Sequence to fold (523 residues):
Amino acid sequence: MVSSRDLVLAALSGETPERVPVAIVSSAWVFSSYGLELSEAYQDPDLMTETWRKFDNDYGADAVVPSLSSTVIPSYFGTTWKFPPIGFPLLQKPAISDPSELDKLEKIDPTKDKSIQAATLHAKQLTEKFGGNRAVWFMTTGPLSNAARIVETEFLMECLIEDPEFVEELFKFSMDAFKTTVEPVLDFGVDILDFSSSPGSPDLISPRMYRRFFWPFDKELVEWTHKKGVKTVFHICGNTMPIIEDMAKTGADGLSVDSMVDLSAAREVIGKTALVGNIDPAGMLMNGTIEMVEKACIEAMKTGGLSGAFVLAPGCDVPPTCPNENIKTMIDSTKLHGIYPLKM
Amino acid sequence: MEAYDIITEICAPAMSQVGILYQEGEYFVPEILMSAKAFEAAMEVLRPFLKDTEKKAAGTVVLGVCEGDIHTIGKNLVATMLEAAGFNIIDLGKDVPAKDFVRVAKENDADLIGVSALMTTSMIGMKDVVDLSKEEGIRVKIMVGGGPVTEEYARKIGADGYGKDAKEAVDLAIRLMEA
Fold:
């Protein structure tokens, strides 16, 4: 019998595996559902690994997902956060608020940061424990998303018009920091690097601006990751249809798309590049019933995965308050209805 | 040309055009932020030349982003567009508890409260603003908006209206003032 890892890697290679693979790409939800405080969990590799072991045992998804949380790299440079009891971390003060401050930031040294060390060790532990059986899917907030946390998003948006040279410099700086941080993890033999580039979303900027400022960096990161022998999944939030062809042209193995993207329309444009998604995290996983979740999974497989090259996953990060039974239903219904050839 | 006429006949229609260009997919957030900056710069120059009688606003709006949410871009655009349309704005910023919306609205005898949220985890705070304003018995209308918010959600929590974007928010505010 083929392993979960084989299913995921076949899908990300544009092939049709025996069954549609399913991945819960959200460590925030997994940790919250086992009662962990996110700010503490991210500092404790053993606790994170043990929690993923429990999740794997209880739910049986095809991937384990070590992650580098969205706060880690920006915090290294001085960005501060507020951690609400429920929900995602909130940026309080960005590391820099003026372009002149970029030169004052020192290069990142991952050995000096407890959270980076914890994320790295956690990824290593999961690779050792699950490697070869489950796909080890390293989820990160990508360098250009981090850039919008080293400065504030609104400031970045203004600089795209007022100070394009600064944007280039900031993106280069953030890219270097990102590569330095994740390189050891890729060298452990994780299967997939998943990165986001969300300030490039057509919900925020024009496709023209995406192509000019973001695309070259997204492509560079995909190529760098491939040289390391690791597959790439690339996520941008929101309706990415206006740029999905560009996203595919980065050479990424999988495009992780949000719930508002029409999977069959996306498929027509991107050919055999894998689609990853796109169950609505809020409307469906948080607020839907198990019957609704099952129906949504079948619909996603039918529209996105009829001829393979598809991993069923949430469309974006899962709210910590999403009920356990909806996640379980998502996994079970994929296993039940996702055997190829799909009978639907 | 008088300062007041420059605002009402030139700046406000220009911002309105910005809203239309956004709805048509021609403008995106960076272009809108630049337009808003230009509008604010014009207002800085023109404000000292406004006569007292001309400062009479179309209404007072208390604006803010829900508690637990720091995404201010949408709210800032709505604030600028409402100002361009002649409203007096009290901007409470981000991560605003429900009680602060209601307290400030009460203190300033506001006509409208505008609540924004970009996250599903924070938009639940909108209901608290609606419930608390009813509890306090203040005569204020509540409008909501932001990424995950829908017309249906607005109705469900008992808000008076929903705006899909900044342009709709202004149209809605004007309608609510007339109602």
In short: Chain A is about 50% helix and 10% strand.
